[in-house]
Write a sequence for this structure.
């Protein structure tokens, strides 16, 4: 079927990373003021389109740069596997980003014209993640990009367009969500160290080694479970401790990051890290809504 390669290229397993910050930002808006589902829905569509556009761009430019080869241990990539022609993927990437930009324009009504800068920057960085003269993923800035755009920017902007203001508590939670989403990239980078090194893709895992990235993963997890405890103290509300339900899974994953030794084990670890993100975001949002 013609649609299946495009579903593969959109990388459905990564889409929770786009939805998670919007859900948490909306839950924080409900907790501290009020939730407005129309701008929240626009934020969700924009975030999903940016994620898919970034995935398409990654598929195309990693193929062009030689990072996706037969030796790669991760899931099949559509262009590298010959399922989608490179030129077709290039135009599809442009179309998805253009659609995302148009959707994002609707948020100006709620947050002001400065959101135009956020939208343009999001699109440009989606491209710049693997393209251009200074591709972020190839110089070790991929982790920072994910933390900023899928964590801080996504959560804070979702909150702001619904409430009209900003708080440091929202920023705190945005770094937590950004860290858990960054961990998806960390696992990918540890798994692909050898092929990335050959392609001159200088991720943090390539630059500083496997041990560095393992502890990066673990520190983001520790931060994720320390922040809710501070929130419980700050608001005197034990519902905010609900994310601790997922702590056993998080602890297990922290151990397994040090023992995984094959493409299959890293792919399984990646799937469980997505599960951890979903569980954490669900329980945190439930606590905020309750």
């Amino acid at each position: 079927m013609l649609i299946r390669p495009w579903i593969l290229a959109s990388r459905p397993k990564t889409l929770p990373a786009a939805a998670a910050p919007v859900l948490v930002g909306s839950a924080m808006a409900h907790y501290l003021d009020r939730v407005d589902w129309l701008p929240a829905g626009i934020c969700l569509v924009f975030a999903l389109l940016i994620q898919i556009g970034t995935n398409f761009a990654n598929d195309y430019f990693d193929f062009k740069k030689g990072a996706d080869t037969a030796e790669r241990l991760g899931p099949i990539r559509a262009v590298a596997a010959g399922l989608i022609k490179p030129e077709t993927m290039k135009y599809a990437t442009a179309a998805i980003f253009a659609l995302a930009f148009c959707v994002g324009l609707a948020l100006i009504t709620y947050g002001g014209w400065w959101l135009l800068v956020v939208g343009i920057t999001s699109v440009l960085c989606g491209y710049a993640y693997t393209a251009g003269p200074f591709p972020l993923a190839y110089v070790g800035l991929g982790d920072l990009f994910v933390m900023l755009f899928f964590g801080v920017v996504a959560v804070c902007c979702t909150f702001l367009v619904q409430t009209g203001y900003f708080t440091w508590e929202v920023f705190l939670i945005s770094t937590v969500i950004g860290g858990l989403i960054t961990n998806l990239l960390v696992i990918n980078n540890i798994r692909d160290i050898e092929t990335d090194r050959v392609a001159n893709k200088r991720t943090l895992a390539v630059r500083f080694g496997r041990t560095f990235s393992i502890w990066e993963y673990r520190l983001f997890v520790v931060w994720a479970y320390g922040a809710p405890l501070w929130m419980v103290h700050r608001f005197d509300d034990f519902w905010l401790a609900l994310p601790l339900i997922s702590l056993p899974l998080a602890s297990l994953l922290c151990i397994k990051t040090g023992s995984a030794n094959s493409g299959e084990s890293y792919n399984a670890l990646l799937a469980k890290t997505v599960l951890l993100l979903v569980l954490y975001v669900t329980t945190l949002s439930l606590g905020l809504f309750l």
Observations:
- The radius of gyration is 19 Å.
